Structures are given as structure tokens and as C-alpha cells.
């Protein structure tokens, strides 16, 4: 008799547990009590990592790569340190899926030998441990991707991004958790369960790259790779206080990665980095594009890293930028701490000599509904096909058992409906029109900026809330709008929720039921310690410029926050 | 009572006739007799053009631009010369739709004044008359696009390409004929009728940019802009003996141009040039990309002209190239003259120091069927919607009345069928897989080339036949395969059908009914004087390299043909 989906899930989870070196399992007294919400200090205090391993894992990507290239730190030592810290992170937030430390150790040894022998690094990522969302296939490992139907089907070959990262010198060691279907802004599935937020374990880690969010926030990974179809890199980045880039369509190779809704090419998912430093994000993009992935992946855009764009040649060299501030999308009013973070960024940019204008959202509701309708145009056939072989049920809510609240019949960011091909063409046609209107709207801002250019970038919340309690991340509208527009967007951390600064405010006139739910879920205590971030948004294929501008935003915020 | 579609069509045709300066209408004795098939000599012999106008219109784009920039020839004189020759072309092959000579003359005068005043050209296309397929909207003019429903609806603004060309200094003066629906490889509609081939008026001009093909071949335009979804630039180029580039998706702005099947974004139509010189093709691409169309069109790729790619840096500087020769796609055996042209190119390339290997077509039938199924996935709803307002019937065959042969229920390159969105996703998924297989196939050729690189480009027929008799262009498979793959492809003229060299050969074992039809339609007499061309094919977004390599092919063929 074949195993039930529950048995399959349990066996896979047990296999995962067995893949952890037993010496790295923390005893009950080293683990924080369940009521301890903020666990970000635990990796350093738990005693598993040596002082040197703590130092290594607290080092950002840029300096880390330099130390390894100079053979000051070996790839083996760096790899081992991050492996340990990742396993601690797993025990704190349940962020991992596949764990393959032996492979990582062997790979790091090879890199060390190569460097010792040749005096050369293998590539720009020499020795860097990189964690991957549970979509990026690695030969010989399952890619479960949140479905029991993915169990026991080891990949026959690496996806192209894995080959590209290895060619650039990276070390792969863990993959990270995702929600079933990938189409949720939180992270829960029936195999691995729920990933929590290390800043406050009562809060969501975000999704769908939520495993990456938690792991990178705990510095169990110096650099993680997620994917983003409607916010799935930016949402966990914003929930967990990270830098995270949603590149433009087809700039980062996706070939051979497992995915939901294959063939849904209208608003495709894109791969991109999550990191504790902006430099790490840029390092990733340079390294990936440097490998010319278009030679292997027919969908990867033939467009090298554009250093001029990064140096902001088309943005006055970055000297006096003008930002469009989108305070509110008009549909879901941001909570007080979100607005405070936006204000802080505004003040920081003005203090740094830049200017800002208010940005009027244009057709945002329609853009987001369009995405929902496009993703739902198969009326759920893709999800059903992915579940059929084991009979695993579709997850209808991410609210923990026992908590009473509105459930969803389908992932809340999808509106499923039978649609014929002609109907889908009409949605495509409207999408193009809306993208045209939006670009015209952007260009028209030249009349207001005073720079002789339209706005150089937008600053927007990533959501109306910081990381909410589990099950309450019900909207992806602030992120999805930029997927539909194909605008590259980088999340930049700003500050945190602070009860003294972020009191609840009186109710406004609610615009719709979700707007009311957003308002009502807020209290400074519930959201305590949650990171606050913003999105920096550029125009299609301005990825390099968005990174250059994000550096300016980041530096301004850091300088302003110090004063 | 509202006009019938026939009345609308007749009125529009009469309006066109009235837009021709009466002095330019050739009297019966100046027009060739109906039985004269080759009319390419008529523009020079008919007496309408002065010797200087003949000289001007016989000049290629490169020298033409230089003479105008040097104020040796005025834009006004050049414009008038091409206007006259275009009107002669119209009287010979019925290639035009909108004719707006007054606008062109006024525009040319402005350009002359600007140059006289400033000593500067307006842009890289200063003074160049450019003809446009009947899709590129111009403010105040109808864009009929082969449908009576398009009559009497003047455009409210220019499409972006028109703005871009004007900003670069071009002069617009005529638009050119297309088939109803645009989805035919020939050119016939109920408003303007049929466009014939100037090399042999019994033969098709090709389609859907067939008006451009005839006009440019008669040198009634130094440079035309067509569009290509399955071969619609390359087919008329090959039929009429021109250089024609199908650029990669989204490199040339399409915003605001009228189109069939709006929202069919899977294998989209692209805009590109047709020209009597390869230099003109390159001039067009440089000029359009130089205007940064992505600042106006959200779908236009943010990718400047890549001079390094054009200089073939990734192809050994163009010194010793290796070409993959696709002699036969395995489904439709090319006719003798097509194979002779391929052999001539092979010999020419070897004589020029390059090498060739045989190219095995991979999944070509499936790739082409995939395109048919994708374009037909709306089951004809788009065409019906475009016809509904006037009741104009869908054209079911392009065979002239009175000729007996198999008819088509729909354009022959479309397989219409009800498809739901999920079904369309499955076609998309397969398309991506096939593109991956094809790129792998390309890369694997490194084992055979002897250059250390995979093949630098493919050489392929553009069709199994030269321009066939009207109604007989039933296949677009040799061109469509490269649309599905999104491979930039340039047509290069080689020679002509010559009865002494291109005798009919014994029948082979027919592979299918169309293969039999191809074989049976051939006789050297029927195809007399038809141009013979090849396609030069590169990988996705290698547009610049394809132009650089096409120059090498063109030079080799010219050198070899002289000997």
C-alpha cells in the first residue's frame, strides 16, 4: 500500500532531522523558552559557535569575500560557521528544508585547495555559502517546494542558477522553506510546517521566500536566493529586516528551477537575493550576470551588468535625486509604524540633499486585481494537478489551528476563475495599457521634481503593516503592483516598531473590509520589535540604478538615524 | 442607413486615388502591359522621374544620408524623388495604403531650414524618407490595417516608433499594404486589393509586410518598416529580394502601433526594417535604439545598441566563423533554386575563409505547430471582433478568383481551437522547454565547429520556395520557427531563379500533403526571375551580431558571385 501524504510528509521531516549533525542539536536548556519572542541573540549565546565562528557569521558579504580571497579565512572555516548557525536558526524558526552539510564541507575544501594551489579564487563568490529557496534544483536532492508530491524525486541535474553560482565559487549547504503553492505571503506547508520570524516568533516570516527571510536575519546565511512573483522576496525581506531585490523579469536565470504555475508567463516569478547588506545584493547581481547566463538559459536577458547605470549616469550621478513618495496606495491605509518609517526616510533624504514629492498611485487596485485574475485564470488547475498524486489537500488559510478568523478558500492573492485564452489576451492587453499609463505618469513628474528629470525612484511601503501575526498577511498589493509593472524594487531596512513611537491611532473611514482588518490587527505590543523597511522602485530593467539609488537611501537613513 | 463594408472599402480606395497628384498618374502608354511580369525597370523608364531623381532614388541609405547631411542633396529633393517613385510603384504593384505627400514635403522643408540655419542635422536619419506598414499610427490618419472597420478612425496620436523616427530626422510619406488579419504570408485585403511582386507580377509579394516588400524593391522607398510575427518581414524580403531584419522581441518599440490579436503576448509581433542595403538595416537599428525608446514604451527593452556585439567580439572578431547550414527542415523539401542559393552561400563562405557544418533541425514541426496553436488559441475571436462592426467577411484564401485550388478556412498559418488559460499555459511551458532544448543543441555544436565556439550563426532558407504564384504561399514554417525561438534573423539576397540552372527535379517521397504541393507548384518558368535569399540566424538578443555576421555573408556572396 502506498504511503498517505501525511506519512510521506512525516518521513521527509524525519529525514531532515536526521540530516542535522547530532552534536549541533541544542539541548532544551540552550534553547530559548517558547515565550521568548526575539531569538536573534540566540545564535551568539547558545554556545554552539566559537567566538571566531560568531565573528565570521557576523561579517557582511563584501568583507567576507575579501578575507577568503586573501586566504585570511578559509572557505572551510566560513562554511562550517554558517552551517552551524543555519542549524541553530532551524531550531529557532524552522526555516530549512534540505540540509546537505557534507557536500558543503567537501566543496569548501576543494575551493581551499584550488586557492592554495593556484593563488587564484575560483570566481567572485569564492567560498561564499549561499542558501537557496526550496525551488532551485540541485542534482541528487529532492525539490519538495511545499508539496508532498515533490518528495522522493531527486533532481537529475542542477538548475542553471546553481551551475552559475558554483562557477562563480559559491558553496551551497541548505535550502529553505516555502508555503504550499508558493502563492502565499507567509510560509507554511504540510511537510516542514511553519517558519517563524526571528525578531518576534509570534509574527510571520513573510513569504513565499520566508525560510530565506528567517535564515538570513539570523545570519545563518550571508546571502540567500529567493523568488518573487508578487512580493515573495520583498515580503520576507521587509518582515525580517533585510535588503532584498526583486530584479526585472528574466535578468536572473530561472531555468530548471521548480516552480508553481509553469507556463504562466504573463507576470512571471523572478529570482533574486536577500541579504543583511546591500553590498551583498550587488555582489550577487554582478556575479550572476558575469557568468552570462543567457548562454545557458534562453529566457535570460542578454544584458550584462551595466556599470554606467549603477553609477547613476542617467540620474545626475546620484548627486541631487528626487524621490516620489507613495505614502498610501489608496486602498489599504498603512499602520502608524509604516508611516513613521516612510517619514524617517523622507527626512533622511532631505537631510542628505535630495528632494521628495508626493506620488499618486495610478490604477494600483486594478493592477493588483489584474495580477490576481491572471494567476487565477486556470481556476486552480495547476494547484490541483500538483496535489493530485498524493491527495494532499490545498491549504486554505495560514492561521494557526485554534485561532478564529476569516479563512480563505484559495491563497488570498489569487482570484481563481475559468478564463479562456481570448479572455487572458484581454487581461494582457489591459496590462500593457496600464504599464503605458504608468510610464507616462512617471515621465509627467518631470514637471514637479525640479531636477530636469522625472522622479529618480519611488519610495513605497512594502505592505500596510510590518510582519503581522501568523495567518494575517492577507495582502500583497504594495509589492504586486511592481511585479505587474515589472519595476525592479529593492527593500531597504529603516528601523523597528517601537511601542513609544507607534501608538495606535483613531480609526479612519474604512475603504473596504481588508482595510478594516489591517487597522484592527494593530497594537504596538503585538507588533513589538518588528522590522520596518521601505521599497525603492525604479523603471523596468533599471536594476543597476535601483541598487545605486538604494545605496544612497541606505546611507542617508543610517546617517540620519545616528544623529 | 450606414454604408456596407463594400461601400466603405470603395470610398477608401477612391480617397487613396484622390491623394495621388494627378500629374503623377502614368498614362496608359507609359504603363507596362499587363503581360509584362518584371516591372522593376519601369520607374526609371516611365519618364516621371528626372535623371537626378533616378540617381537619388537609386542611392542606398548610407550615401543618401551623407549627401543630405552635407547639404549636397536637400531633404526636399530627396523626398520629392521618393514620393514620385512610390507613386509609380503603386501604379505597378498596388503597394500603398495612406499617401500623404503634402505632409512629407512640409516636413522635408523644415529639415532643410533647420540644417541651413544650424549647420546641424536633426538626427541620424535626417531627411530620409521612410515608408511604414499600415500599422504604425500617425496622428490624423486612418490605420486601416486591412479591415474595413479601420476606416474613418484617424489616430489621435503617433505611435512611439513614428515619434522616434521623426526625432531622428526621418520624413514619412506613405504607408503600405497588408493582408486582412495580418496573419497571411501574402498581401490582399478588401479595401486596397492585392500587392504584386515587381520582379514578376504573377508572383506574390509575400506578407504580411508585402506592401513594403514591393515598394522597397522598386526603390519607391529607401527604407521600410514592417512587422514580423511568423515571418512577415522576412517573407516579403525574401520574395522581393531585400535585406530584412526580424529583431528580437521588444527591441524595436511597438507601442501605439495597431495590431491583430492584441494581448497575444506569447509570440509577439516585432517591428523591423526592410531595405535594399544591409547598411540601411543597421542605420535603422542604431537610430531607433539611439532614441532610447524604453523611456516611452514600457515593453521596449532597455538595451542600447551594442557596438561590441556588432564588432563580433564574441565571435572571434568575425575572422573565422563557422555556420550551421539548415538545408531542409525535414517537413517541406526546398525547391531546386532554393537549394542552389544555399549551396552558393556555402561556397562563398568557404571561399572567404569560413567553415560550415550541416545543421540538424530540432523539433521544427512542433515549434511551428506550437505557434499555430498559440495564435489560434482564441479560436478566431479576435478576427471576428475586428470584422463585426462592418460585417466584412473573413478572407479564406488568397488565391485569385477563378483559380481552382484548395482553400483555407482560416489563415493557413493558424490552427484555431478553443483553448482555456490552463491549456495555454501548457503550450507556454512546452515552448520554454523547446527553447531550452534548442539552445542546448546550439551549444553542443561546439564539438563540430573547430572554432572553440558553437556555430556563430545558422544559414537557412526563408521558405521552401521563392515567391510563389498568388495564393500559393501556404507555409511560414522556415521563418516561424525563429519567432518561437526568438532568434534574430536577417534575410540576405543571393541570386535569382534562372531557368537554365533551376530545372525541375524528380519527385521525392512526399512527407505530407503540403510537401507535395510545394513540389508540384514548381517550374522554372512559373518562378522566372524570382529573387533567392537566405536567412542568417543568431541567438536571442544577438541582433547586433546577426547584422555583423550578415555583412560577412553578404560580402562573401557578392565577392563569390563576381568571380
What does this structure look like?
The structure is a homodimer of 563-residue chains. Chain A is of the alpha/beta class. The first copy, chain A, has one domain: Amidase signature (AS) enzymes, CATH 3.90.1300.10. Helix content of chain A is 38%, strand content 12%. The first copy, chain A, is built from 19 helices and 15 strands. Chain A has helices at 5-18, 42-45, 51-57, 61-69, 75-93, 101-118, 160-167, 210-217, 234-240, 278-290, 307-310, 336-351, 364-375, 381-388, 421-444, 446-449, 477-484, 513-521, 543-562; strands spanning 96-99, 129-133, 171-176, 188-189, 193-194, 196-197, 200-204, 223-228, 243-246, 270-275, 322-325, 355-358, 457-460, 489-496, 531-537. An eleven-stranded mixed β-sheet of chain A has the order 1-3-2-8-10-9-14-15-13-11-12, sandwiched between helices. A two-stranded antiparallel sheet of chain A has the order 4-5. In chain A, helix 3 (51-57) crosses helix 5. Chain A is globular. The first copy, chain A, starts with a helix and ends with a helix. The mean pLDDT of chain A is 97. The interface between A and B is large, with 46 and 46 residues.
Please give the structural blueprint.
The structure is a homodimer of 563-residue chains.
Chain A: H1 5-18, H2 42-45, H3 51-57, H4 61-69, H5 75-93, E1 96-99, H6 101-118, E2 129-133, H7 160-167, E3 171-176, E4 188-189, E5 193-194, E6 196-197, E7 200-204, H8 210-217, E8 223-228, H9 234-240, E9 243-246, E10 270-275, H10 278-290, H11 307-310, E11 322-325, H12 336-351, E12 355-358, H13 364-375, H14 381-388, H15 421-444, H16 446-449, E13 457-460, H17 477-484, E14 489-496, H18 513-521, E15 531-537, H19 543-562
Amino acid at each position: 500500500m502506498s504511503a498517505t501524504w501525511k506519512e510521506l510528509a512525516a518521513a521527509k521531516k524525519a529525514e531532515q532531522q536526521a540530516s542535522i549533525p547530532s552534536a549541533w542539536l541544542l539541548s532544551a536548556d540552550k534553547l530559548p523558552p517558547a515565550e521568548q519572542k526575539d531569538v536573534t541573540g540566540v545564535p551568539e549565546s547558545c554556545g554552539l559557535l566559537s567566538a571566531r565562528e560568531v565573528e565570521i557569521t557576523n561579517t557582511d558579504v563584501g568583507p567576507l569575500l575579501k578575507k577568503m580571497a586573501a586566504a585570511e579565512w578559509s572557505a572551510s572555516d566560513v562554511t562550517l560557521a554558517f552551517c552551524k548557525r543555519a542549524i541553530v536558526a532551524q531550531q529557532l524558526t524552522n526555516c530549512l528544508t534540505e540540509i546537505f552539510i557534507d557536500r558543503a564541507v567537501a566543496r569548501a575544501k576543494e575551493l581551499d585547495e584550488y586557492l592554495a594551489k593556484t593563488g587564484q579564487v575560483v570566481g567572485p563568490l569564492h567560498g561564499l555559502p549561499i542558501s537557496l529557496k526550496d525551488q532551485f534544483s540541485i542534482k541528487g536532492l529532492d525539490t519538495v517546494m511545499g508539496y508532498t508530491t515533490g518528495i522522493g524525486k531527486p533532481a537529475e541535474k542542477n538548475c542553471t542558477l546553481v551551475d552559475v553560482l558554483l562557477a562563480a565559487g559559491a558553496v551551497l549547504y541548505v535550502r529553505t522553506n516555502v508555503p504550499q503553492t508558493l502563492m502565499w505571503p507567509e510560509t507554511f506547508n504540510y511537510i516542514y510546517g511553519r517558519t517563524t520570524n526571528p525578531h518576534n516568533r509570534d509574527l510571520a516570516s513573510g513569504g513565499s521566500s520566508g525560510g530565506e527571510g528567517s535564515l538570513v536575519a539570523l545570519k545563518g546565511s550571508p546571502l540567500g536566493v529567493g523568488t518573487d512573483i508578487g512580493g515573495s522576496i520583498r515580503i520576507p525581506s521587509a518582515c525580517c529586516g533585510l535588503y532584498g531585490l526583486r530584479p526585472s523579469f528574466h535578468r536572473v536565470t530561472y531555468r530548471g528551477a521548480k516552480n508553481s504555475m509553469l507556463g504562466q508567463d504573463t507576470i512571471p516569478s523572478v529570482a533574486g537575493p536577500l541579504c543583511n547588506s546591500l553590498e551583498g545584493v550587488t555582489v550577487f547581481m554582478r556575479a550572476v550576470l558575469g557568468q552570462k547566463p543567457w548562454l545557458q538559459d534562453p529566457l535570460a536577458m542578454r544584458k550584462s551588468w551595466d556599470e554606467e547605470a549603477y553609477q547613476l549616469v542617467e540620474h545626475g550621478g546620484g548627486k541631487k535625486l528626487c524621490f516620489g513618495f507613495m505614502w498610501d496606495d489608496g486602498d489599504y491605509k498603512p499602520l502608524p509604524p509604516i508611516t513613521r518609517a516612510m517619514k524617517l526616510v523622507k527626512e533622511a533624504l532631505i537631510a542628505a540633499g535630495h528632494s521628495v514629492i508626493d506620488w499618486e498611485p495610478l490604477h494600483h487596485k486594478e493592477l493588483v486585481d489584474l495580477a490576481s485574475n491572471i494567476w487565477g485564470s486556470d481556476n486552480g488547475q495547476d494547484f490541483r494537478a500538483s496535489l493530485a498524486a498524493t491527495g494532499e489537500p490545498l491549504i486554505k488559510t495560514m492561521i494557526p489551528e485554534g485561532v478564529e478568523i476569516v479563512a480563505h478558500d484559495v491563497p488570498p492573492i489569487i482570484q481563481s476563475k475559468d478564463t479562456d485564452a481570448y479572455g487572458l489576451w484581454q487581461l494582457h492587453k489591459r496590462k500593457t495599457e496600464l504599464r503605458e499609463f504608468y510610464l507616462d505618469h512617471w515621465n509627467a513628474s518631470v514637471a514637479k521634481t525640479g531636477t530636469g528629470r522625472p522622479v529618480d525612484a519611488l519610495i513605497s511601503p512594502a505592505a500596510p503593516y510590518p510582519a503581522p501575526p501568523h495567518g494575517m498577511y492577507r495582502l500583497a498589493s504594495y509589492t504586486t503592483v511592481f511585479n505587474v509593472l515589472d519595476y525592479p524594487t529593492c527593500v531597504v531596512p529603516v528601523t523597528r516598531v517601537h511601542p513609544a513611537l507607534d501608538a495606535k491611532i483613531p480609526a479612519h473611514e474604512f475603504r473596504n473590509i481588508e482595510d478594516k482588518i489591517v487597522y484592527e490587527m494593530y497594537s504596538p505590543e503585538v507588533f513589538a520589535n518588528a522590522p520596518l523597511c521601505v521599497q525603492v522602485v525604479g523603471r523596468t530593467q533599471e536594476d543597476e540604478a535601483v541598487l545605486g539609488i538604494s545605496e544612497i537611501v541606505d546611507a542617508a537613513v543610517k546617517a540620519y538615524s545616528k544623529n
